[in-house]
Design a protein that fits this description.
alpha/beta, Molybdopterin biosynthesis moea protein, domain 2, six-stranded mixed β-sheet, five-stranded mixed β-sheet, 7 helices, 16% helix, binds ligand LQZAQKY5, binds molybdate ion, molybdenum cofactor biosynthesis, MoeA_C_domain_IV_sf, metal-binding, molybdopterin molybdotransferase activity
């Protein structure tokens, strides 16, 4: 017998399960071609091949401190009361490429990052000397190896430093540069046309009449596309007219990998997206989820099309659930999904039967908990800005008591 608070309910028969629609969307997009780009143009892109280090890091033994290169034996008895005085034979700034050897009984003045001279086995920081230029008085003994950064202790020449499928952020680009890669093979970022329709929509910044609203899905989805490492082109205020819709769309079809629309897909009298694509290779379905029930996906004149619902929260949540993973995979990402965690609810929660609910939440990683942010309504846009995750409530779970473990997708 299932417990009272976990009534078993399947996805309603007329609705397509979330997993099925995810698979349909994923199947639309293929990996973008590989191209070579200079490092400065690779931020956020995905590496297409393993990167092996051409050189070791550090490439040579070098000083970790500004000071003096010495033989540890020579300064073994040094103290503030009885300093060891050595003649300074050479000055070795960072970037000096010859290697003047150190003779026993002498010191080389050396700077951080400069190559350790052959014959030296320790660095004395300038603070433990008198800072002399001709002769230096050393006030402290040093162990052999002190303040020397050894060649290859970070990376060995030939080692694989980055794997194919890695998203290139600041650290990855820094490492690639450090091992001498000037260009990297990356997947071209998928190009997405974001198209929003609706006669009620007004450009933000312009005056608003009663009955009108500011267009927000276009800018939001284009930003989500860019955040997913893709390039977005934004086409807004396309009128609710099928001919005008096609006229606006057609010039872009040859240059994009995906057309992503918002709005115009439910059951109203003016559903321009549905009217324009119905019978043209795009299938319109109701998915067993909330928000985000009305969805469309298919291929129109050779170009993948995904139609998202117009309610703003529905639009962004559907983007997260269906579009983002497909785009990340197309961009070559080896881990295209958002990280998922299990977390305990800080309060009781009700969920509609037969539909998977995606509620906005705040995940506290330290406490292992998640709190509900805002209501379930798909027009409640403000909660998206204060949440950091989507709570995934199974279609079978209708009443969840405080402390129940749920899956959360970390969106920030
Ligand atoms: N009779 C039915 N009505 C509705 C159903 C249904 O099954 N039967 N589904 C509801 C659900 S669920 C959703 S979600 C919406 C989806 O509607 P559409 O995708 O057709 O979107 P619109 O009607 O064009 O707009 C819905 C809502 O969102 C606002 N909107 C639209 N585009 C934008 C934009 N670019 N920026 C800001 N806001 C936008 C629009 O003004 C509407 O308020 O349908 C339900 N109805
Ligand atoms: O499914 Mo709609 O997306 O709830 O508002």
């Amino acid at each position: 017998m299932p417990p009272k608070d976990r009534l078993r309910v399947r996805a309603l028969p007329s609705l397509r399960p979330v997993a099925e629609h995810r698979a349909a969307v994923a199947a639309l997009l293929s990996r973008t071609p590989v191209e070579s780009r200079p490092l400065a143009a690779c931020l956020g892109l995905v590496l297409a091949e393993d990167l092996h280090a051409r050189i070791s890091l550090p490439p040579f033994d070098n000083s970790a401190m500004d000071g003096y290169a010495v033989l540890a034996d020579d300064v073994a008895d040094a103290s503030p009361e009885s300093p060891v005085v050595l003649p300074v034979a050479e000055d070795v700034p960072a970037g000096r490429t010859d290697s003047p050897a150190l003779r026993p009984g002498t010191a080389h003045r050396i700077m951080t990052g400069a190559p350790v001279p052959p014959g030296a086995d320790a660095i004395v920081q300038v603070e433990f000397t008198d800072g002399g230029v001709e002769r230096v008085a050393v006030h402290q003994p040093k162990e052999p190896g002190a303040h020397i950064r050894r060649a290859g202790e970070d990376v060995r020449a030939g080692a694989r430093v980055l794997g194919a499928g890695t998203r290139l952020g600041a650290a990855e680009l820094g490492l690639a540069a450090a091992v001498g890669a000037g260009e990297l093979p990356v997947h071209r970022p998928p190009r997405v046309l974001v198209l929003s329709t609706g006669s009620e929509l007004v450009e933000p910044g312009k005056p608003l009449l009663h009955g009108q609203i500011y267009e927000s899905n276009g800018v939001m989805l284009a930003a989500a596309v860019e955040q997913a490492g893709c390039s977005a082109e934004l086409l807004r205020f396309v009128p609710d007219d099928v001919e005008e819709f096609h006229a606006a769309l057609t010039p872009h079809l040859s240059t994009v990998d995906l057309v992503l629309t918002s709005g115009g897909v439910s059951a109203g009298a003016y559903e321009v997206v549905k009217d324009a694509f119905s019978g043209q290779g795009v299938e319109f379905v109701k998915v067993a989820m909330q928000p985000g029930m009305p969805q469309g996906a298919g291929v129109y004149r050779g170009v993948p099309v995904i139609t998202l619902p117009g309610n703003p929260v529905s639009s962004l949540v559907s983007f997260e659930v269906f579009v983002r993973p497909a785009l990340r995979a197309a961009a070559g990402d080896a881990s295209p999904e958002r990280p998922a965690r299990r977390a305990r609810l800080t309060e009781a929660l009700r969920s509609a039967p037969g539909k998977r609910q995606y509620r906005r939440g705040f995940h506290d990683a330290d406490a292992g908990t998640v709190s509900v942010v805002g209501g379930p309504g798909s027009h409640l846009l403000s909660a998206l800005t204060t949440s950091n995750c989507l709570m995934e409530i199974d279609e079978n779970d209708t009443e969840l008591v405080e402390g129940t473990e749920v899956t959360v997708l970390l969106t920030r």
